Amino acid sequence: MGERGQLDLRVKGFLNRLIANYKEMVLTVVALAWPTIVEQALQTVVQYADTAMVGRIGKQASAAVGLTSTMGWLVNAPMFAMGIGVLACISRALGAKDYERARTASAQALYLTVALGAALGVATLAISPFLPVWLGAEPEIRRDAAVYFAIVCAPMLFRASSIIFGSVLRAASDMKTPMLVGLLTNGINVVLNFFLIYESRTMNLGPVNIPVWGAGLGVAGAAIATAVAHIAGGSLMLVGVLRNPLVSFKGRKLKLDKPVMGQCVRVGFPVALERMGACLGQVVFTSLVTSLGTVALAAHSLAITAEQAFYIPGYGMQSAAATLAGNALGEGDQKKLNHMARTMIVITVLLMTLTGGLLFAFPEFMMRIFSSDPAVIEMGASALRIVAVSEPLFGLLIILEGVFNGVGDTRVPFVYSIITMWGVRILGSFLCVSVFHLGLNQVWLCMVGDNVMRALLLAERFWSGRWKKRLNFQQKAA
Fold first, then answer.
1. What is the spatial distance between Cα 331 and Cα 28, in angstroms, rounded to a whole number?
2. pTM above 0.90, yes or no
């Protein structure tokens, strides 16, 4: 065989190995990501149903619920952050096959759940009467907004359990249990909405008239349904952890392990600051939108809800990225980490290019799901077209966040988030609304600018490789 033939064989062999490696990685990613994507999709469907049911009451009800949603993100931020800290610790321990440390970290999650659930529950109930006024809500929606926020925050301990123990299970590559818990709790939410929001009425199924009981509680009914779903979700997620042999602390003597807790907090604390800073920014952002009037606030809130369906693939992939990144760090395999991250970036950007195209093409259809008000539909559809263009870069942002969270590199991303949120989104929106007296479209351009700038900063950091210097495998080949 000549040199040309030998070269061809070597090239074919290389290509076959490359395809095999990528096929294996893609299959691994899909196996981990699909339950989370389904879970996210179910949550979005329920959010859609919840918002549409409330929206049928009127635009004031939509505005009342939407007003406090950003504050809900702020409340969730410390719990999600500590969940990321626990996930990074457990996934790294499992990658290193240190099962004792993984179970110890799971036990620390119980302490975090109780502490955060109790503290945040008391704080949110205390501020609920005053929150709508602080956010600049118009008088006619303040009472409903305060009642809704108080009720959904009352079972905060269970919400903390659902979020933090869900992260424990995902760290153990158990994505199916959170999916099944989500399916059940979302079902509870929708069914209770059906009976608690509306008055008793008669449903017509062809020639048959069926009387349906209803509590007629309106916005408060939607809040009660959500609260009951939180209680069920938190309880079931704890049961799921206790039944998982990799992370169960059942039968163990529970005690505070300072080194393990310290690792969880060191990773989670910058994430908590980042999310709280971002969510405080969202609260300020919403207050700026509120100053544009009830129609603009309703359009903004409903458009935010409508957009959620189109980044489901990204957040499904993010959980898998965090778990696999932590595993790779535990194994000390830098090449595996690089291969995984690049594969997931390509997949997610392609998926969110597709979903962004769909959002750009059908924004009016999405808005009509939640409202029949022509002004709300028109204003919200225009905002959705603006954000649709940025979906691919948002996908890049989501995956890079997952990778950095998984390896515990959370400090610099925190700084980036604060800079772009306050320097681009908030400052830009303030200038648009208060100085130049522009409308909702210009405010959403500022929101898109925040996401795009943060994606570019994280991408530059990832490809520069500077972040690897503090990790245990920096001496290995890329």
1. 16
2. no
**pLDDT tens digits, one per residue of 283-321:** 788 888 888 888 888 899 889 888 887 888 888 888 889
Burial of 340 (0-12, 13-18, 19+ CB in 10 A): buried
Residue with tokens 């693939």: 313
Q: Give per-residue pLDDT as tens, 95-146.
A: 999 999 999 999 999 999 999 999 999 999 999 999 888 877 778 888 888 9
Write down the residue that tokens 């008669």 correspond to: 202
**Helix or strand (DSSP H, E) at 419:** helix 411-420
- With a CB cutoff of 8 Å and minimum separation 6, the contacts of 476 are 332, 333, 334, 335
* d(C-alpha 153, C-alpha 135), whole Å: 17
254-291: string of b/e by CB count within 10 Å (b at 16+)?
eeebeebbebbbebbbbbbbbbbbbbbbbbbbbbbbbe
Q: How confident is the model at residue 19 (pLDDT cuts 50, 70, 90)?
A: low
Radius of gyration over every alpha carbon of the chain, rounded to an integer in angstroms: 23
Spatial separation of the C-alpha atoms in residues 299 and 380, rounded to whole Å: 5
**Measuring CA to CA, which residue among 202, 161, 159, 183 is closest to residue 73?**
159
**What is the separation of C-alpha 50 from the centre of its chain, rounded to a whole number of angstroms?**
17
Q: What 3-state DSSP class applies to 213?
A: strand
Summarize pLDDT for 246-258 with one digit per residue, the tens.
Answer: 999 988 888 889 9
Residues 6+ apart with CB under 8 A from 27: none
Backbone phi, psi, residue 394, to 5°: -65, -35
Q: Token pair for residue 427?
A: 């400052």
Give the DSSP H/E element, type plus range, for residue 377.
helix 374-388
- 301/426 Cα distance (integer angstroms): 17
Give 284's Cβ-side CA count (13 Å radius): 18
SS3 assignment, position 128:
coil
